[in-house]
Amino acid sequence: MSGSSLGRLFVVSNFGESHGPAIGCVVDGCPPGLPLTEADLQADLDRRKPGTSRHVTQRQEADQVEILSGVFEGVTTGAPIGLLIRNQDQRSKDYGNIMDTFRPGHADYTYWHKYGIRDYRGGGRSSARMTAPMVAAGAIAKKWLTSKLGIEIRGCMTQIGEVDIPFSTWDDVHTNPFFAPNNGKVAELEAYMDTLRKSGDSCGAGLRVQATGVPVGLGSPLYDKLDADIAHAMMSINAVKGVEIGAGFACIAQKGSEHGDEMTPEGFGSNHAGGILGGISTGQNIEVRMAIKPTSSIRLPRKSIDKAGNPIDVETYGRHDPCVGIRATPIAEAMLALVIMDHLLVHRAQCADVQVDTPQIPPGISNY
Amino acid sequence: MSGSSLGRLFVVSNFGESHGPAIGCVVDGCPPGLPLTEADLQADLDRRKPGTSRHVTQRQEADQVEILSGVFEGVTTGAPIGLLIRNQDQRSKDYGNIMDTFRPGHADYTYWHKYGIRDYRGGGRSSARMTAPMVAAGAIAKKWLTSKLGIEIRGCMTQIGEVDIPFSTWDDVHTNPFFAPNNGKVAELEAYMDTLRKSGDSCGAGLRVQATGVPVGLGSPLYDKLDADIAHAMMSINAVKGVEIGAGFACIAQKGSEHGDEMTPEGFGSNHAGGILGGISTGQNIEVRMAIKPTSSIRLPRKSIDKAGNPIDVETYGRHDPCVGIRATPIAEAMLALVIMDHLLVHRAQCADVQVDTPQIPPGISNY
Amino acid sequence: MSGSSLGRLFVVSNFGESHGPAIGCVVDGCPPGLPLTEADLQADLDRRKPGTSRHVTQRQEADQVEILSGVFEGVTTGAPIGLLIRNQDQRSKDYGNIMDTFRPGHADYTYWHKYGIRDYRGGGRSSARMTAPMVAAGAIAKKWLTSKLGIEIRGCMTQIGEVDIPFSTWDDVHTNPFFAPNNGKVAELEAYMDTLRKSGDSCGAGLRVQATGVPVGLGSPLYDKLDADIAHAMMSINAVKGVEIGAGFACIAQKGSEHGDEMTPEGFGSNHAGGILGGISTGQNIEVRMAIKPTSSIRLPRKSIDKAGNPIDVETYGRHDPCVGIRATPIAEAMLALVIMDHLLVHRAQCADVQVDTPQIPPGISNY
Amino acid sequence: MSGSSLGRLFVVSNFGESHGPAIGCVVDGCPPGLPLTEADLQADLDRRKPGTSRHVTQRQEADQVEILSGVFEGVTTGAPIGLLIRNQDQRSKDYGNIMDTFRPGHADYTYWHKYGIRDYRGGGRSSARMTAPMVAAGAIAKKWLTSKLGIEIRGCMTQIGEVDIPFSTWDDVHTNPFFAPNNGKVAELEAYMDTLRKSGDSCGAGLRVQATGVPVGLGSPLYDKLDADIAHAMMSINAVKGVEIGAGFACIAQKGSEHGDEMTPEGFGSNHAGGILGGISTGQNIEVRMAIKPTSSIRLPRKSIDKAGNPIDVETYGRHDPCVGIRATPIAEAMLALVIMDHLLVHRAQCADVQVDTPQIPPGISNY
After folding, report:
1. What is the dihedral angle through the alpha carbons of B137, B143, B144, B149, rounded to the nearest 10 degrees?
2. Whole-model pTM over 0.95
3. What strands, in cross-sheet order, belong to the sheet with D81-86?
4. Least CB–CB distance from A303: residue in B230, B262, B307
5. Which residues of this UniProt protein bind NADP(+) (chains A, B, C, D) (predicted)?
6. Is there a contact between B213 and B151 (Cβ–Cβ < 8 Å)?
7. What mean pLDDT is predicted for residues C224-240?
8. Which residues of D are annotated as a binding site for NADP(+)?
9. Which terminal Cβ of chain A has fewer Cβ within 10 Å, N or C?
10. Are B366 and B284 in contact (CB under 8 A)?
11. ipTM score over 0.85, yes or no
């Protein structure tokens, strides 16, 4: 398959550029019988929407999604679901300053050499805007997973720039502009971001996403392991440079006697595995962490070259996120939902007949 | 597609269990005209082979690969290449101790619940042995990439357990049993591993793999980004719990002014991107790091349950690697080769006509 | 992959129902640099549009296509091309007569049992209307094939109901309402269709589609043979019940000495192969024929059952094509273009390096 | 995916050449828990084996299949099943006569131009021998379909050369060397074949394959229609030039009032649809017919060219089938089993939750 689709049985095929007529996707493989309205999708879209606080881009995008197909009388029919989001600001505003230059850290240089042409307006295809259709598609998967299996997916920030955010409670996440699971850190984060914004620079972010209620058995041993597909999905989010499952990089210095999660009839004794063993879900919480690089568009001058290969200095003005990671939480949630949904369908295709007497043990202790 | 294949145009379909008659794979999509012999594949297979030092498992496996098809008079024909490795030790030795128990950190519990049946002999399908066919397949990709494009792929260890291995030189990697790029650390590593082995415990490992000479333009913007597919491939290697591209998790605390790699006619000023921007290769070195968890099979007793759900204690004896990460270097190289090869074919399918006047700049400084 | 996509590298993912808000598709994998406007797509869409003569349905559908993405300043960028066609008539007119009944020959019964829900309005997903986005997608492939390689694709009717249409000239095809390659048969066809229409019955049709200028070498030996993928594409057109390549079913009674196309430096001596040998194009014309079943919606009463399983009589009124095959010519052309385009991209991915000294011989005699 | 795989969830990846070391395939996606031994596969392999009568090639091939993986203690584990068939006759016998020539009707010319290299020994990859692994893979699907759902698949000849074979009874098929469902025609067929063989010429064949007990609901509306995938699978069998579903080409001259199969509580009134409506199974018998071209290897001299492009005469000696179609029956059965199995898995992935009150009606009358 060409490169713009995600999934095998729950397939999202994405299209659009940030300043073209519209962006959207086709969601193919959604089981029939799921009640679905545009409001179900809009909720998550609004969570990732810009302009919700002074700490994110002040661009105004309604990101109103329209369901074009696959839903009849408020219920999914099993036919592909077409989703459309019109781009509002298509003014061919002056992009002359980047039309012929390659911005450091952006895809300008790579697109140009790959395609010989690029829609430079607002980043075109490489714009973070392309995550909006995925958030909408993910909302469909989320609703199915929650309503049919009680699977919940949620995300939060673990770090913004140099400010670590110790986990306190999921309840705080939606009560502050940083998706921070710890309101005690909000004041520090606001100060940090205000300083950063004034400096004209940007910073990276650490993000965590979790799925609870996932049954044991989802995933293939190799190569479509559940964790491998999660890594693929997360790394396919703009600006993500690292992905961890469970203990992640901390496992390097761990001993086997520490890392291997013990099992008792009462449940797992720990969750260093992040809910996945041998590529297959264990029934524990799925735990994923990722690193998001600093926004590449900053006001500070950077060295680069132009299309002719001449050296130039680039200063990027405009309404950019000082930390793109902040709005990435609903995106990561959506991607995790899409991967789990896809594996769930593959699993019931292959293993619908399987029955074992062995009782499943509880998720048990979660050390994340 | 079902879960045992990797790639879109250079496709490896893997089969086998550690104690079945044989393991192997079908490599489909290799271009015609590549000189290929079994010796080309054996070199890398021997690098991952057990029993090469006291620091790895003492199991004896010849891992002799046979080319079954796709090569005629020493040259690839464009037809699928069947690769076969016979399992030598199929003695139905006494696995009674694990037949009815679920070893912590292993896939026993997940396989059982997913399939309702598992080949428990030596880990069956979840055995690290299944990486052998991938190493053979990767050797085909490596030879093509090197002979046609001068792309080189190499890997080394960055950390073993608590011992950090500062990079010194690639020349050292093949002169010590740890794939360590720094012979000055070998004595410390030997002492560490000897102590670990005696303790009956195991440790994790950090691994780095690099590709040089990759042209600008490989990869799709979304979702088959080059970095996303690399993350998928690496995370599909047994025991990998984390993957980083370029700066990886370090990018969280970086400023945009630091992370974004500047460009000049003389080349890139740094390589925090790890050679990939917007999912597409930049022409810099591709830099990947991963975390490998400690071996789950240890002599120390662990709490677990049996098939009936009763609590038990598990002690795993046998000839296990105290650090599975050590032998993972050729595996990671193979996986990276497979991903790059696949993207190269996809790229020339879509962009064979593209020509730009803009000169490509040199890889420049590599800060890895 | 889920079932609504066609192709591997030139992938069309289709969505929509006949009476939903819109229909359309995502065309992923189109090479960059192709000049493309909506007018390029509209030409073929207008050829399949209803209401062009009294011999087809009198429904009025503008079928105006909008390009949503993948084209910048009139040229394809390599990004997926989103295509949108708004449904004009969404009036929830009275479909009460079919809502609870299964029309013979229609997909009502199968959809209902498969999905447990169906959008019964105008056939919903099973409507011939879903071929419109494919015609638009095919027009992109057609333009690429023609402008880059001089490949031409054209179709015509071979038979309508009991009226055989001997091939005379391609020039006639666009000068009569039957896509007939023989104006001498038009009067007979008009009389036949008028009688048929008055009778309230419908008839089937035979259709031929041809590609000229296809280079030798497109296709995979097995299982993605060029002819196998053509058969798949043609059989996926609504109402198609049979597909032939070259001599087709006539080859059963042929002798090997007759069927096997001889080769001379001047060209092939015949084309019983239909331009494909061993799944790979020969450089001859690709010759495909197909059978299209009679329209299932007829005014004559038929026996059927309702949702409760009770016997009923069904009479279908409305503006239906008395012979759906008539408008299928541009659809079959589009499908053939899509398959050839896809194989062309796969071929240059795998065989871009291949060079042989052997001269290609001319297509030679075409006995079709 | 590259071209040597068939299926989406029940995936067969095929490898091998007629005179290489071995042929085989990987069957990925077989559900766990199916009792399976090599004997289960050998039965169908023996039915397609050469040398079973004077009317087929006298080549001796044991075609002994070995199961390499995916089966443990006689039961499938859900892991990929590796199948291996060693080629016995690898003697590099003198193929000098075809090494530099292109045999009319063969893939010699197309392979050479596509790949720039070809394994000319016995047809290499294009040999009918490559169907053996598919027969073995199909036997797995057959056993699953029969044991789990009572689906039966069977095939027979409808015509050999100019001799039509009116259907009499399935019981006769396995009692004569022609897979003829009518022993009354055997004497005529033997005479016809003896004369043909003496003449040094070959003939085509017509073949029918049927599936009974297929539940309603298998298939996707577009583009992975059940009939489209069947057409793809059948056309991917060597030498097949045409495929029909149900009425096939006869539907062209049918009226809608004749073709559309009426439904009553007692069952369908006819089966012109061949058991598929809108790409989805109806619960009737799946009826498929195909045309197989005459063997291209004949003793009679044919005009052709050599690698240098010079005109030559070709006479093909050796032990060739005078009618390759005769041995194709088990192959077509296998392909149909593979397609149905694949769609069954896809169906239960997407529609496992669907429940309707409407009773399914019996298959009813079969007019085939």
Report:
1. 140
2. yes
3. D5-6, D11-16, D22-28, D81-86, D65-67
4. B262
5. 48, 54
6. yes
7. 97
8. 48, 54
9. C
10. yes
11. yes
